[in-house]
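yo, Replication-relaxation is done. seq:
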Amino acid sequence: MTTANRIQPSTEDTHTHRALALLAQHRLLTTTQIHQMLTPRSPSRKIHRVLVPLREQGLITHTTLGSSSRLQAHFLTPEGFSTVADWPELRGRTATPIGSAAAASLRAAHTLTGVRAHLAFLTDARARGDEYEPLDWMPEVTHRLPDTGGEDRLIADAVFHYTATSPRRLQYRAFVEIDRTTMSSERLARKLISYARFHDYTPQTVGRWRTVADQGSLLAWQRLYPRFPRILFILTGASRTTLTARIQDLRNMTADHELVTRLAAHVPLGAAVLEDIEEHGPQANVWTPLAGDAAPRSWTQL
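structure:
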């Protein structure tokens, strides 16, 4: 028998494998969200055939959200976390286990809001034939900042990687900030300063802190990204008037703060309302640029 005629193992992951990987990376997902990521073309009831055995094996558990016991959010148990810890697709991506249903409930609102945004991009990419998969959205990505007396870390709510295939092949990366209107507008806008500091940060070498002027050194972000990711703010949780005002506050910070103005000269910055993204798609003209002309546009045209 020739090599070509031998039976070869499948290169495709099982639904069970993919479900565990999704829960490891996103940490918390509802049944519907897992179905939308994993088997969107199959009846939703079929996802239970994947989840029930994982629960029986002690690899996943769930918390109940709201007053209805039908809305469940699933997460890995410590045993499930140990199972996926060394999987190649998750290296450097898995966070610590949630630990308990109570802890899952406390983080559910923010985590699941981020997943809603991710699913809007995923649904749109599938319709367009673009390359964007469920694991291309990485939550809670941390980067060091220079020690200047302020925050020493930048924690992006997510970083995603997206490849458009038409009319020509283009690769995009974006930092994402999810705003549920739970912090002051000023504090939200200050995140732009943190991104500007990271944009200019060259790690200390040979006992001294080197600046952006040291052309011989790599900036911190250049060790991780071929191009500095665009920055997208996604807002929800308040009236249209309030969300519009918060977007204007982001524009004011961009215009008034020297570091952020310099950042905007090199990096696309934009903001949109989550419900607009979900209704019209992220490629629609629902994004307000944070610098220059405020006319709405697509996230790829910022």
